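User: tokens in, sequence out, please.
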């Protein structure tokens, strides 16, 4: 199918883009890499009257070292994330997960921010940002605001972004010494979406897990943290047995979907198995 008719603008500055989006109201939409939006337009599941193309906004490009955190610009693509030296050095989980997204052609266009704004709970990037305690930076007609990942994903394909707001970047705290990470993704074929994805971070100290964080993809209508498993792992000896036991609680509080690829119970089982594997690698055991 071909999309319905829409107007198109490609502003040269962020202020201009915010103005165009605000003027367009609820019928205007941002387009970045187009990897989620264009299929929706073609299926006529989305029919905006105006597309605001943010692709020319140089202020949204690149990754900046900002002291204790990195500021990842909204136009940074999944492909760039796999290679960026700052991301690889300080937030390797982002690079590792980005390498599992789709195929090289899609990764060259798809942005991290687009994946977050699209808010598909099966997406890899949302679960990663939950585990990393990232903060989304949004700019709208009222100015700039910061939205913690835990408040950003409101429901299926729905975020806390208000109409007229543009996600300008993602602030990701740097992982200091002692932190390890792992993204475990179970999918039908390489380059397919996650049936379940598990992003784990662990800080090891004196042979124990001092801190653990686990983000889950495709275990509900939004990406979630496996809080019970995190609590169970924290303070425990860093051993495969204790982490496997903590991971038994990975699906607590989740509401996994049923679809062609798996029933909810199957996804619960995957979440437990993948959490044990991911925590083991993140803890270096
Ligand atoms: C074949 C294929 C396979 C895929 N496989 C995977 C996979 O394995 N794992 C995975 O996680 N994802 C996968 N994806 C999805 C892909 O990661 C997303 O489509 C992509 O990251 C979205 O980014 P984009 O820049 O293309 O966003 P767009 O398609 O341009 O936009 C997506 C949505 O976000 C909004 N938006 C975009 N940028 C902003 C912004 N800065 N501020 C406010 N709103 C914004 C748009 O208005 C739109 O609603 C796949 C996609 C395809 C086509």
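Assistant: Sequence out:
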């Amino acid at each position: 199918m071909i999309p319905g008719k829409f107007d198109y603008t490609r502003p040269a500055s962020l202020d201009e883009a915010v103005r165009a989006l605000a003027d367009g109201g609820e019928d205007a939409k941002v387009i970045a890499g187009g990897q989620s939006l264009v299929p929706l337009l073609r299926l006529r599941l989305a029919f905006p009257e105006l597309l605001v193309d943010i692709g020319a906004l140089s202020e949204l490009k690149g990754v900046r070292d900002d002291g204790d955190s990195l500021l990842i610009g909204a136009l940074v693509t999944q492909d760039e994330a796999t290679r960026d030296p700052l991301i690889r050095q300080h937030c390797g989980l982002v690079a590792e997960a980005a390498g599992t997204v789709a195929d090289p052609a899609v990764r060259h266009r798809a942005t991290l921010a687009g994946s977050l704004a699209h808010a598909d709970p099966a997406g890899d990037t949302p679960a990663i940002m939950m585990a990393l305690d990232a903060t989304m930076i949004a700019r709208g007609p009222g100015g700039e605001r910061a939205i913690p990942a835990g408040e950003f994903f409101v429901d299926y394909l729905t975020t806390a972004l208000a109409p007229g707001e543009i996600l300008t970047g993602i602030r990701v705290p740097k992982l200091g010494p002692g932190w390890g990470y792992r993204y475990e993704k179970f999918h039908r074929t390489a380059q397919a979406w996650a049936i379940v994805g598990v992003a784990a971070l662990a800080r090891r100290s004196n042979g124990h897990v001092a801190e653990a964080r686990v983000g889950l993809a495709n275990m509900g209508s939004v990406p979630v943290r496996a809080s019970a498993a995190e609590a169970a792992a924290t303070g425990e000896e860093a051993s495969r047995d204790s982490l496997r036991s903590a991971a038994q609680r990975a699906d607590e509080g989740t509401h996994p979907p049923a679809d062609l690829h798996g029933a909810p119970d199957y996804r619960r089982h995957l979440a437990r198995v993948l959490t044990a594997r991911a925590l083991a690698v993140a803890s270096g055991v």
